[in-house]
Design a protein that fits this description.
The chain is of the alpha+beta class. It has helices at 15-18, 118-132, 150-157; strands at residues 7-9, 29-38, 41-45, 57-63, 71-83, 100-113, 135-137, 146-148.
Length: 162
């Protein structure tokens, strides 16, 4: 079992791969262990906002095969809340308590057969990581070519796939 420890998300991402100039997209985050939200589901939070309702969070679980299945299930969820914009310009003159307006979230689920090898799982992980960057590096047969990833564009621009 992997011990719960801080998880660092680096701002050192190739800015060209994200295709944005927004500085907020390159912020370094530290997700610290926050215990278990349910048995076997670990939670990590980034306390950067100072307001608990606005903490970005990640949950992670690894479920072994059950009921005759031979498949492990790894689930990772990331949620980044956005707080309502409030001011002290109210009848009472007091600023209301912070409240979550909405959150952007990602749910990743890996189904990994017990017969699979570490190398196969590493290969899958690297393929998923590659699809999440906007520019994919070329294959070994064409080391100078690049192509755009449809996944990043779909997420960032909400453009349909055709």
């Amino acid at each position: 079992m992997t011990a719960m420890a801080n998880v660092y998300v680096s701002r050192n991402v190739d800015r060209n791969s994200l295709k944005t100039t927004d500085v907020a997209a390159y912020t370094t985050h530290t997700f610290s262990p926050d215990g278990y939200v349910s048995p076997g589901v670990a939670q990590y939070v980034d306390r950067v906002t100072g307001v608990p309702v606005g903490f970005p969070r990640m949950t992670l679980s690894v479920r072994p095969p059950a009921n005759g299945s031979q498949v492990y299930k790894v689930v990772c969820k990331v949620a980044v809340p956005t707080l309502e914009v409030t001011s002290a310009n109210t009848e009472t003159g007091y600023q209301p308590a912070p409240k979550k307006a909405y959150e952007n979230a990602c749910h990743m689920e890996w189904l990994l057969p017990a017969r699979g090898t570490e190398l196969e799982r590493t290969h899958l992980l690297h393929m998923v990581i590659s699809f999440l960057v906007a520019t994919l590096s070329a294959s070994d047969s064409d080391p100078t070519g690049t192509t755009g990833s449809p996944v990043g564009t779909a997420i960032i621009k909400l453009e349909p796939v055709f």
